[in-house]
Amino acid sequence: MARLPADGAGALPRGRRREPRRRGRELEVTRRRIGVAVVLGGLLAGGILVSTAVDVAPAVAADEVCKPGNVVFSSERPAAFSLLQTEAAWQRSTGEGVIVAVVDSGIDVGNPHLEDAVVGGIDLVGDGERADGLSDPQGHGTAIAGQIAARKIPKSGVVGLAPDSKLLSVRVFRGTDDESKRDGFGPTTARLAAGIRWAAENDADVINVSLSEVDGSAELEAAVAAAHDAGSLVVASGGNRATAEDARDGARYPAAYPGALGVTASDASGTVTDDSIHGPQVDVSAPAQSVTTSATGAGDCVYATEAPSSSFATGYVSGAAALVAAAHPADGPDGWAYRLMATAARTDPDQRDDVSGWGLIRPADAITLLPSATTRGPASPFVDTAGSAVRPPSISVTPSDGSSAFAATSAATAFITIVGATLLGIIATAVVLRRRHRADAETDAVASDGPPRLGFLDRPADEEF
């Protein structure tokens, strides 16, 4: 599994623990301009602009409503909120004081839901868009940003799951169309890794990566590890079957790396379907069909109307992680991930699987969880939960000589039976002989009219042979 780094049962989270933030303070984004210039210059060099197959769900609506310039708002609240314990969670946390980085196609700060939510960003694409990453011609990143932190505005029911969290826009691709790829502006592993590092260096608590790839790389793995060590939780997509070049089930990256929380998509009922890639990278699921959120150059839009998409499931899990991080800032990335996994809804509390991981997230339960040795589910970074399972794992026994345990037991039973039967036969024979001798003695006594003779078994105890 690609979950909490193996620090041992009961070990404290490896990443640094942040001090609780003062509520309401403005968050200053630290720009390391020299480092960014070096990274950006390297990314634009022709030698490393080789794009691997990166899976991105299309940010295209089913109709013309979401086209830039067509500003339309929906009065309905996001449908997923009915499964996400939203009202209960908001009683305890709204994400205030938490920074979520959206490593994606950018964020359109012109959308009224987002203009007060974004506190900074960077462009790592170099295609002529804003250097601060606050533009999004493609629209994918803007939709994810709205799921996480959209502000409530008049005439719209859309609001983010963590409506008081702050956003960083980390722009790592222009689009997934052939033209973008041909011009070197499509998704690449190098830019994705650089984006994760930049987000962690600029104080992101949660890093949303609604992207996935089949092969991964040492560079990407190192970026996730560096983010974890800096105290950031990487929340990553487990993959979509429809948009993947390789639609077979199996690990997807960065979701499968230690320190990342891998996400799959469920339908409106909370059921994970075959539209998502299944595999060891899956830790939790979230609803991700008919997602109403912010649209680039427009107002609100409904995405993923035909099938659930793990990109949007990742957005909601990042929002949930922001709620948990705001409520428990000292827990660190391992603690935040653990809370979401341990409290997720599943059939068997003691087992995960490659389809839905530990189950459907329940943010309110994750916030209120009091970790203990009896908490069932994944290994805890707080206490040793090895004995929490109600049904212990099965144990197989293999005899050292290669024979089966059943055969060995059967042989022993047969031996004991034979020995017992033999002893019973000897005892029975002795009893019969004794009775026969006694009968013969009585007959002789009658015949001779003398004292009865003592048979072998009738000798007095003190008589010598």
From TrEMBL:
<dbReference type="GO" id="GO:0004252">
    <property type="term" value="F:serine-type endopeptidase activity"/>
</dbReference>
<dbReference type="InterPro" id="IPR050131">
    <property type="entry name" value="Peptidase_S8_subtilisin-like"/>
</dbReference>
<feature type="transmembrane region" description="Helical">
    <location>
        <begin position="405"/>
        <end position="433"/>
    </location>
</feature>
<keyword id="KW-0378">Hydrolase</keyword>
<protein>
    <submittedName>
        <fullName>Peptidase S8</fullName>
    </submittedName>
</protein>
<keyword id="KW-0645">Protease</keyword>
<dbReference type="InterPro" id="IPR000209">
    <property type="entry name" value="Peptidase_S8/S53_dom"/>
</dbReference>
<dbReference type="InterPro" id="IPR015500">
    <property type="entry name" value="Peptidase_S8_subtilisin-rel"/>
</dbReference>
<feature type="compositionally biased region" description="Basic residues">
    <location>
        <begin position="14"/>
        <end position="24"/>
    </location>
</feature>
<dbReference type="InterPro" id="IPR023827">
    <property type="entry name" value="Peptidase_S8_Asp-AS"/>
</dbReference>
<feature type="domain" description="Peptidase S8/S53">
    <location>
        <begin position="95"/>
        <end position="359"/>
    </location>
</feature>
<feature type="compositionally biased region" description="Low complexity">
    <location>
        <begin position="1"/>
        <end position="13"/>
    </location>
</feature>
<dbReference type="InterPro" id="IPR022398">
    <property type="entry name" value="Peptidase_S8_His-AS"/>
</dbReference>
<keyword id="KW-0720">Serine protease</keyword>
<comment type="similarity">
    <text>Belongs to the peptidase S8 family.</text>
</comment>
<keyword id="KW-1133">Transmembrane helix</keyword>
<feature type="region of interest" description="Disordered">
    <location>
        <begin position="1"/>
        <end position="25"/>
    </location>
</feature>
<dbReference type="InterPro" id="IPR036852">
    <property type="entry name" value="Peptidase_S8/S53_dom_sf"/>
</dbReference>
<feature type="region of interest" description="Disordered">
    <location>
        <begin position="440"/>
        <end position="465"/>
    </location>
</feature>
<dbReference type="GO" id="GO:0006508">
    <property type="term" value="P:proteolysis"/>
</dbReference>
<feature type="active site" description="Charge relay system">
    <location>
        <position position="104"/>
    </location>
</feature>
<keyword id="KW-0472">Membrane</keyword>
<keyword id="KW-0812">Transmembrane</keyword>
<feature type="active site" description="Charge relay system">
    <location>
        <position position="311"/>
    </location>
</feature>
<dbReference type="Pfam" id="PF00082">
    <property type="entry name" value="Peptidase_S8"/>
</dbReference>
<feature type="active site" description="Charge relay system">
    <location>
        <position position="140"/>
    </location>
</feature>
